Amino acid sequence: MTDDSTNPAQRRVVGTPQIRKEGAEKVLGRAKYVDDIEFPGMWHGATVRSTIPRGRILAIHFDESVPWHEFVIVTAADIPGNNHIQMIAADQPCLADGAVNHCDEPILLIAHPDKRLLPQAVASVRIDYEELPAVLSIEESESKREIIWGADTSTPNVFKEFVLQKGNVDEAWSSAACIVEGEYSTGAQEHLYIENNGMIADYSDDGGITVWGSLQCPFYVHKSLMAVFNLPEDKVRVIQTETGGAFGGKEDYPSIIASHAALLALKARRPIKMIYDRMEDLAATTKRHPSRTRHRTAVDKDGKLLAMEIEIATDGGAYSTLSSTVLSRATLHATGPYVCPNIRIRSRAWATNTVPYGAFRGFGAPQTIFAIERHMEHIALAVGMDPVELRRRNFLHDGDTTATQQIMREPVILDQLLDRALAVSDFYAKRERYARENATNPVKCGIGIAAFYHGSGFTGSGERRLNSLAGVDVTLQGKVRVLVSSTEFGQGTNTILAQIAAEALGISYDDVEMAPSDTHLIPNSGPTVASRTSMVVGHLIQRSGRQLIQTLKEAANLSDNYTRHDFFAACELLRARDGEVKSLSRYEAPPNIYWNDDTYTGEAYPAFAWAVYVAEVAVDTITYSAEVIDFHTVQEVGTVLNPTLAAGQIEGGVAQGIGYALYEKVQLKNGHMFNNQMTNYIMPTAQDVPPIHVYFEQIPFAYGAFGAKGIGELPHDGPAPAILNAIQNATGESFSAIPLLPEDIFLRFASYGLDPENITA
Amino acid sequence: MSDCRIQLTINGQQTSVEAPPMKRLLDVLREDLDLTGTKEGCGEGECGSCSVRMNGELVNSCMVPILQAHGAHIETVESLAIDAELHPLQKAFLECGGAQCGICTPGMLMAATHLIAHNPNPSLEQIREGLAGNLCRCTGFIKIFDSVITAAAMEGSRTHAR
To answer: What residue spans in chain B does CATH classification 1.10.150.120 cover?
Structure first.
């Protein structure tokens, strides 16, 4: 049995629509999410939060009407280790100590056996502050009237800055036939996983801390708890419970809520459950970074890009958390999938007194892809060219270099993706028909396009630094187990990794299960982020499988044409010799991958997923609502490991992208989200999503699992610009900011005197 | 307020609970009866994760005080499979990819059960309308629509019941 990754005809499991591993438990209602778990003697925890965006804490008063002796109360003084949440830098306190830097910042924790008494108790803690002026926008932070972060650095208020240069932009302007400028902005977006953040913690002197919870990255939480409690590795144990959606929203925040639950457990000497309700989750946890991107582009008379100057600013919130890496990905996706000889990008992540922004599917890319794909539309208008043709003329091809001077060594098939997208959406015929019908119809229809890539895996040297370890073992009960810290939160980790293991080992999908997601039992295969699970971790599982077969052949005489029975019999022979049957693999970078963090040049990503999306909209000029009526997606993500799950990723990502463009508005007052309810933070419902058509081209990537590249984040990148391009096609109006709500469209038309006749399509 | 004794029929079994009259049906199911298949997503009747059927009507159990459920017949996700036999909707959700993270799935299944009970062969538009009160953040709903259409075509999608 072979596992020839280049020959789909020889595969049995990879590429087939295997049923989701944990699917039966989910449809039966038996899957255990954190709030479904009870321990004897368990108490419930709650958080007292800042009500001001910036200030000093002067005093904390406990209202005497509450029987406080029944409660356990934790403040920063109770923290045995470091009072910070360990992400990239250590600037975010676990609990505010003397000062607060954003609304909803945690200040103290309380626990009680009866959870129904907690809201009243939280409300009965009064905090006196000396308020300081708050910085609440990118522009206020840029003005530096208030320095709120990095006062001792050369770039105060700036979490991170990148400058990326290729060629010489300054010499290109004079030779341009046309120079096009534009400014584009994107709002915050809430993940709105349907399961809120939640965690249970327990403490014992012998075992240390154990937490169970809803999370993406067990070893991020592990590392954070070690620092907060000053405990060694083996005294901290993190167990992931079934996780009801994440989308990046459970990448860094679980480290905070786990620390809080564990602090209460340490003091109460009993298990503590902390489950946020929706209002708390919306107000206190991370969102997508708001952004502002400015473009200045030189083009020649044929529409070829001569120079691109791009300035990116993101709002990082009050602490640095993941802002530097989000900014990096934003920067590396800012030019879109186009080739240009002269590029200068300057990007900065700014500190503000708002809840820290964090990871969200796409991780900076949706922000800058929105900007470039709207800007391409404006360039097309300026040079009088079909926007489709303008894109085609500037597409990257094999052998071209990107902004970081990365040479495209893998095949780039953008032309093919574009052709297929135009064909399946019937683009030109529809554009013509809509233009004809719009003349007499108050509902204006339009069609728009977006082309883009998404880099798979960690940026630059990131995967080398992660140095991931993953593998398989075989249990005494005759099951192969996948050993990873990569977690399942709906996207299909369990299923695709089991498929990869089964394929590599030449056994059936049903013979493979996942090892429990428990840091005491699994190796660190890195965080479950960055569209890296299929490509990077999957490849480690494939290698581990091959390695195990090789060992079984050498040590247990496994024949070339082995059966399932032969395989497990050989495993037992190996166990008799070694005491265990286990095969682990460590990450090895593909050849020719070099990255220079200082100059930001080299191979930004080992592989890219590519896509062309086509949106069709209907804009009602009486109600000013814009609706997406059809959506076509064509993408190349390497090998499709499971067609049902892969299509599900695309459809779900497109729906989130539609929400990002047209519905989802985080409204802040003093940096506090005041529409923190599902009633008034609106996501697309079953009645709002259009038909979403999904097409894959497959070009296997030699260093991904059976040829897989990343898929999860890609579909969030394209919808917003495609939709706003379609709205421009429908109405003739160009909008440069999202979310674009009916009131925004109304305001634009109101400026023309509300006469629909003024709307020219 | 003192506890009251509530009699109700849950998934075909008569039971009684002592609870504060304003305790949510959702909490009684999860805490008093250990039926944790029903999930809380928003606590304000917006997301539908806590959907159950009450006297044949689809309700958000986070919006029902237990007092109101006195004498009622309640069906939860735990009622769908009969012994080891999955309900056609459960089978279809598995085959079609209708469940991803799974947290909306129990409520979605109850809404779909309710829909098919009233309309054995719903059109796509009727499915969209029937599921409009149930939010899913993973699937973009497309594979949920596929699941309901597939289940409706299966033998016993309407009659499969205790």
So the answer is: 88-152
Cis amide linkage into residue A700, ω under 30° from 0: no
- B12 touches A: beta carbon within 8 Å: no
- Report the pLDDT value the prediction gives residue B55, as an integer from 0 to 100: 98
3-state DSSP assignment of residue A512: strand
In a domain, A496, yes or no: yes
Is residue A522 included in any domain, yes or no? yes
A609: pLDDT strictly greater than 60: yes
pLDDT in tens, B97-129: 999 999 999 999 999 999 999 999 999 999 999
ipTM score of complex: 0.98
Does residue A404 lie within any of the structural domains?
Answer: no
How far lies B139's CA from each of A453, B31, B97, in Å? Answer: 22, 29, 8
Please name the CATH architecture into which domain B88-152 falls.
Answer: Orthogonal Bundle (1.10)
Q: Name the minimum distance, in Å, from the CA of B133 to any CA of chain A.
A: 8
Which residues from chain A sit within 8 angstroms of residue B101, using beta carbons? 193-195, 243-246, 489-490
Q: Does A242 touch chain B (CB under 8 A)?
A: yes
b/e code B99-109 from CB counts within 10 Å (16+ = b): bbbbbbbbbbb
What sign results for the dihedral spanned by CA atoms A110, A114, A118, A124? negative
What the block records as the tokens of A187 is: 């709002």
User: Does B160 reach chain A within 8 Å, measured CB to CB?
Assistant: no
First-last CA distance in chain A: 60
* Per-residue pLDDT tens over the stretch A281-315: 999 999 999 999 999 999 999 999 999 999 999 99
User: pLDDT tens-digit profile of A658-707?
Assistant: 999 999 999 999 999 999 999 999 999 999 999 999 999 999 999 999 99
| pLDDT-based confidence at residue A593 (cuts at 50, 70, 90) | confident
- Compare CB distances from A678 to B46, B141, B142 and report the shortest one's residue: B46
The CATH number that domain B4-78 falls under is 3.10.20.30
Count of structural domains, chain A: 1
- Structural domain range at position A546: 8-31+468-586
Question: Which of A20, A21, A35, A194 best probes binding to B when mutated, by most B CB atoms within 10 angstroms?
Answer: A194
Q: Which residues in B lie closer than 8 A to residue A28 (C-beta atoms)?
A: 37, 77-78, 80-81, 86, 90
